[in-house]
Automatic annotation (TrEMBL):
It comes from the Bacteria. This is Prohead serine protease domain-containing protein. One of its GO terms (biological process) is proteolysis. Residues 26-164 form the Prohead serine protease domain. Transmembrane segments: none annotated. Keywords: Hydrolase, Protease, Viral release from host cell. GO terms for molecular function: peptidase activity.
């Protein structure tokens, strides 16, 4: 399913993911929110360099890509500390903010395996259709990257690099409980 807001022109993409999402180092989220050359469930293909102009402009203006919960602009849940293009796609790394209730809920859902996707919210600046009808996205204005239940690109998810996912989840769950105990003790 593709989401589209007529007032803002913001597009969103959702689809069923096919693998686990994991947290790294406590509440750090990292992974690829978009992969170059991969056809998503809506028939769109993001081309290499599609985010470059937008990311450069945002950096020059001192702005950041927003981290939202399920594309809801009223529910920011963290900060993307790193958003960059590389040879594979749009890599993101950021932190869920433990002071935000929804972020704590998101961390619990990710740890339990209930949430396992990333999804982008953007406006298309330049695109064309190929002979098979796929939309080739050449330039995008990236607004946000959300933690979601159903990303449009199945491969767009967060993972802990080079670690046993079960070990990571158990350690992070223990850290979450310890953090919750400290918060309760403090106030």
């Amino acid at each position: 399913m593709i989401g589209y807001d007529r007032d803002t022109g913001l597009e969103r993409k959702f689809c069923r993911p096919d693998g686990p999402l994991a947290l790294a180092e406590g509440a750090v989220i990292e992974g690829y929110a978009s992969l170059f050359g991969a056809t998503d469930q809506g028939g769109d293909v993001v081309q290499a360099g599609a985010y470059g102009a937008c990311l450069k402009r945002m950096a020059a203006e001192g702005r950041r890509v927003k981290m939202l919960w399920q594309h809801d602009p009223a529910q920011p849940i963290g900060i993307w500390d790193e958003v960059r293009e590389d040879g594979r796609g749009l890599y993101v790394k950021g932190r869920l903010l433990p002071e935000v209730v929804r972020a704590r809920e998101a961390a619990a859902l990710v740890s339990a395996g209930a949430i396992d996707g990333l999804s982008i919210g953007y406006r298309t600046k330049r695109a064309e259709r190929d002979a098979s009808g796929r939309r080739l996205l050449a330039e995008l204005e990236l607004w946000e990257v959300s933690l979601v239940t159903f990303p449009m690109l199945a491969e767009a998810r967060v993972g802990a690099k080079g670690r046993d996912p079960a070990e990571v989840l158990l350690r992070e769950l223990a850290e979450a409980f310890s953090g919750a105990r400290r918060m309760l003790a403090e106030g």
